[in-house]
C-alpha cells in the first residue's frame, strides 16, 4: 500500500494523526450523549432481538474503548511510540469494514421499506463518511509506518554489546 506524504496536501502526518485522535474522542463522546438522549431506533445487524438498553450499553462500551484507543494514539504520536498506536491502527481498519457493511445494510433496509429518499441519503452520506474515515486511517497508518521504520532502524544501529567504558 502506498503511504501518504502529507495530511490534506499541506499538513504533516503527525498533525493529521493528532486530529484523528482528537476527532475520535469528540465523536465518541457525542455518540454516547446521542445514544442515551436522542430517541432513535438503534438495532444490531446480527442480534436484532436484543432490548434497546442492552444495545445502548454495548454501544457505550464501544465508544468508551474508542476514547481509550484514541488517547493511546495521541500519546503514541506525541512520544513517537508505535506500540501505543497499534490498537488504533488495527481497530480502525476493522471499524471501516463494519462501517461500510452497516451503511449498505441500513440503506438496503430503507429501500426495502420503500423509503428510497432516506435510503439514498444514508448511502451517500454513509459512503462519504466511509471515504473520510479511510483517508484518516491512511494518514495514521502512514505516520505509524514512519515511526515503525525509525524504531526498526534504531534497533539495528545500536550495538547491544558496546560497553560504556570502551
Walkthrough of the structure:
- The protein has helices spanning 13-37, 52-79, 82-112, 116-157.
- The protein is an all-alpha fold.
- It has one domain (13-153).
- Helix 1 runs antiparallel to helix 2, helix 1 crosses helix 4 and helix 2 (52-79) runs antiparallel to helix 3.
- The mean pLDDT is 89.
What distinguishing features does this structure have?
166 residues, mainly alpha, 4 helices
Question: Whole-number average pLDDT?
Answer: 89
Q: Rough shape?
A: globular
The largest sheet, given as strand count, sense and whether it forms a barrel, is:
none
How many alpha or pi helices? Answer: 4
Series of secondary-structure elements, N-terminal to C-terminal = HHHH
Overall domain count = 1
The rounded distance between the terminal residues' Cα atoms is 44 Å
State the total count of DSSP E strands.
0
Radius of gyration: 20 Å
Strand content: under 5%
Task: Briefly note the structural class of the backbone.
Answer: mainly alpha
**Segments where pLDDT lies below 50 for 5+ residues?**
none
Helix content: over 70%
Organism: Photinus pyralis (Common eastern firefly)
Protein name: MARVEL domain-containing protein
Keywords: Membrane, Transmembrane, Transmembrane helix
Pfam family, one: DUF4728
Amino acid at each position: 500500500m502506498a503511504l501518504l506524504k502529507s495530511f490534506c496536501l499541506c499538513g504533516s502526518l503527525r498533525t493529521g494523526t493528532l486530529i484523528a485522535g482528537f476527532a475520535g474522542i469528540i465523536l465518541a463522546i457525542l455518540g454516547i450523549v446521542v445514544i442515551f438522549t436522542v430517541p432513535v431506533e438503534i438495532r444490531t445487524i446480527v442480534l436484532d432481538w436484543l432490548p434497546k438498553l442492552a444495545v445502548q450499553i454495548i454501544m457505550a462500551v464501544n465508544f468508551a474503548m474508542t476514547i481509550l484507543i484514541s488517547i493511546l494514539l495521541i500519546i503514541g504520536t506525541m512520544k513517537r511510540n508505535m506500540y501505543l498506536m497499534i490498537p488504533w491502527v488495527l481497530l480502525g481498519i476493522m471499524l471501516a469494514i463494519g462501517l461500510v457493511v452497516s451503511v449498505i445494510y441500513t440503506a438496503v433496509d430503507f429501500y426495502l421499506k420503500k423509503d428510497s429518499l432516506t435510503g439514498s441519503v444514508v448511502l451517500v452520506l454513509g459512503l462519504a463518511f466511509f471515504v473520510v474515515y479511510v483517508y484518516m486511517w491512511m494518514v495514521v497508518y502512514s505516520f505509524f509506518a514512519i515511526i515503525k521504520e525509525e524504531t526498526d532502524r534504531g534497533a539495528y544501529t545500536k550495538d547491544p554489546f558496546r560497553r560504556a567504558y570502551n
